[in-house]
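Intended use. Records such as the Leukocyte elastase inhibitor entry shown here are meant for training and evaluating sequence-to-structure methods. They are not intended to support clinical decisions.
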Amino acid sequence: MRKILTSCVAVLALAACTQNAPAQPTPAPSETDEVQAARPTGPLAVYTVLADAAAADENIVYSPTSAAQAFGLVHLGARGETAAQIEQTFALPAGAKGDAQLGHRRTALSDPGVGVKLRIANALFLADNYRLRDRYVADAKAIYGATTDTVNFKLRPAAAARTINAWADRETNGLIPQVVTPQSIVRDAAAYLANATYFEGDWSRAFTQVERAPFLFGNGRETTFDLMKAEADYATVIDNGWRAVRMPYGRMRRFVMDIMLPEERTAKLPELGVARIAKLDSQLTKAKPASTRLWLPRFEADMEQDLIAPLRRLGLTLPFDRAAADLTGMSHPASARLYIEKAFQVAKLQVFQTGTKAAAATIAVAVPVSVPPPFTGREFRVDQPFLFAIRDTQTGEILFFGRIASPDPYSG
């Protein structure tokens, strides 16, 4: 990620130098402006920061869809520069059009077809001692399909945790039964803004065999692992040292899992920029499926990730700033102003012979600012660290993206 940012800044500087020289000197762009321009935006921006910080043997399972929907609920109540930063980070149009786009993306994914289940649920868990704007709650229901629950965070944190966890468990079909504990509940919270995204897809062509074979883990250790085998027509591509395969789900083959890994077998995944990921996606879309013997690990992976630190690195700072956050579209005029004190995502992925299950829950906690801050063959064998993407080929929505370097055995 650092290399990507450095390269982008260098390109921007070079482009500035090639313009016709002005008659009079003009101030050079500030370093802050250049860094701002170099920051990645869009669905995979957070992943690039997580990958930059993670060790080679750490898994990353992240849902851009879940994060965007949860921060859409924040955006709905944001105003001014706070809203603009969210729009920049999540590549949204300005103002109400940004909320409309996220609402449309949710409904566009509501009919995934035979062999695929996809549920995107939003919710507001509201403190019984704090009042949000009625218009905000109404718009959250109308645009984001949000449900509402009133809880007592301050006096009944255990009951509040049970309510939130029951919702997450239900909306992720049991894959994520717990996202908070009574101890982790922010007792002064005004609201928990939440999204749960659940995906379950049957392979268009199921894997027929499972064999024990070597898998190269991210720590450099090679260990026998369950590798699933299938022989079918798959789209595969090779480009500039990377190879990729596309595995469709369901009867319509609209949803797919793409696997990307280096041609050279290595324990440490090299950096793969967002532009290269998009290029591989485009190449796979154009590639003609051909007879392929495919080996893929049967595995599961999960992750619980704070989102504030990576989002700050991407330039999204104002929602988390007690003094500067502008969430006045959410807070009632008679109540204290709000800021986002916590934001995190819990995600889980399971890949097995007949298909895939994946779920994520993302929560942003809004707190009044008056509260003190808290602390022919061809063979495609996936037997080493790899990247994955679960995406909708019709809308381009990236539901899940991540890196698998140390898979856990499938337990289901």
